[in-house]
Amino acid sequence: MAIKYHSTRNPKLTATASEAILNGIAPDGGLYVPEQIPKLKLTFEALAKMDYAHVAYEVMKLFFTDFTEDELMACIKGAYNPEKFDTEDITTLVQAGDAYFLELFHGRTIAFKDMALSILPYLMTTAAKKCGAKEEIVILTATSGDTGKAALAGFADVPGTSIVVFYPKHGVSRVQEKQMVTQRGKNVNVIGIEGNFDDAQTAVKAMFTDEKLAERMKAKGYRFSSANSINIGRLVPQVAYYVYAYSRLMPKEINFVVPTGNFGNILAAYYAYEMGVPVHKLICASNRNKVLTDFFETGVYDRNREFYLTSSPSMDILISSNLERLIYEISGDKTASFMKDLKEKGRYEISHEMKSKLNIFVGGYAEDEDMEQAIADLYKKEEYIIDTHTAVAAAVYSAYRKETGDETCTVIASTASPYKFTRAVLNSIDPAFDKKDDFELFDELNKLSGVPIPQAIKDIISAPVLHDTVCAKDGLEKEVERIYNL
Ligand SMILES: *Cc1c(COP(=O)(O)O)cnc(C)c1O
Whose CA is nearest to atom 8 of ligand 1? Predict the structure, then answer.
């Protein structure tokens, strides 16, 4: 059955899967949603016998119905192969403490963003062919740290595309920044902004929906698309690993705990649930920027609050874009007016009836101290070392488990390698590490964890800085004009 997509803000703005992937965002600023979330066709017993690529195919073919089997398989084979991941099984489940950790960071840039951004360039170039698009695709990306590098690695030197990444100059880890500013490729641009992720994402979304800008781009032979999780081509590949994880364990029911920022990863878990994975609870873990915890508790989404820089920078976000897709699931045609309130007043409140449809979600947050404790505890008990984002999820999960006594089989999404946040991770285990320099710390982490230093880290140690542009938070469009000679 063919699945159509439409804007969360207007059901009449429809698109095929290819068009939705190519456009990135709907023309009215809404996000593309499938008209219905498809159900899995195969049993979990059948999926359990398949490798990651084939499970991914079984999930994605149900969403991307206008791709032929050959087209989709070619995308999957290009993305999920042993050259791009350092483990045969693409993602690994590790049991430690009271939960399983689903290690999603075995791709080239050692964060879970690789799971979707290694396939997005294939999906995008296939979609462009199918739609007969002639223009060069310009990927505009706002990043809180990890999307940027994963998108750069995915799109570098891909014919017919170029990419501009905006990152918060003072809001990412040293490793994250170094990974981005050393990116090679003729078609890549990396720009720091004097602002935070929300500033970057808001400016980028405004450019996507600026018709005059689109016309000027078109006149020069360009069109915009998005590599952020607002693109359905990023969200759907993420659904696959929740189905995969369930099929490896097959308990009666399962909880997923997801360290959350832009609400993309946990929304993918929700789609997996809608497809038929027997989920008991989806636990949405935030850091001190706990706008989502408050939302699930009170039904009020309010971004009018102080913004904090934490040790889990990829979750330092107050406007979680993908929540719009969940709001659409529970409110339908009211989505546009909620988003208008969010834009104009910075807040909206859902009804009791809508809130009652969110019972599968549990919100929780952890301060940096709780996060550090979670790293130290797990290391002491299990000699297993997790990154700061995953540790936010681990801290939220232990509090949840203590409070509720819920012993349902639980999988924590492990979203980055600890090497990406080496200093914060090692300081959590012993503050004495802080005296050492970055390079020594990589060796220390290697000694403590027994995990080899990933290629992604070796690559940046000696790589020259190739990008040093910084712009004001209202200067993003000017940078785009400069790069593309508008
Ligand atoms: C992006 C990111 C997150 C947040 O994921 P969302 O899909 O934005 O909610 C969490 N942890 C890490 C390491 C990330 O890179």
Answer: 262
